Amino acid sequence: xxxxxxxxxxxxxxxxxxxxxxxxxxxxxxxxxxxxxxxxxxxxxxxxxxxxxxxxxxxxxxxxxxxxxxxxxxxxxxxxxxxxxxxxxxxxxxxxxxxxxxxxxxxxxxxxxxxxxxxxxxxxxxxxxxxxxxxxxxxxxxxxxxxxxxxxx
Length: 153
Ligand SMILES: [Zn+2]
Ligand SMILES: [Zn+2]
What we know:
Blueprint (H helix, E strand, L loop, with lengths): L2 H19 L5 H12 L6 H11 L5 H13 L4 E3 L7 E3 L6 E5 L5 E4 L2 H5 L6 H4 L8 E4 L2 H11 L1
Parallel strand pairs: 3-5
Antiparallel strand pairs: 1-2, 3-4
């Protein structure tokens, strides 16, 4: 699927959801949404804000924050609270986990069907009711490893 078409479909979805929830779709909201969809690597509100300001100098960081929070409530993105990280926003709504690079802070999606399907530990019900499961892997990403490898020669 090419990018332009993908974005168009996403915008249609945004319009539909906003209409259903009675939320006014302002120009700024559309622009924030587009910027979000253009960035596949779990952007923070600050990242979106910095990119957006080039095209939309009047936009405020606070507006970006609030809009992203609204998108999260509408189920259009998922707010991520990774350990030691600022709040990030995930446009990938499929069940998945995350690998976080200790060096460049890049966040990569990880799929692990076996984990998703496996039985919970016994007596989990004593601890509480599990509503979702999310794994965080911390390490050094492939590109950082490659750079480190080249340095040694
Ligand atoms: Zn890295
Ligand atoms: Zn993700």
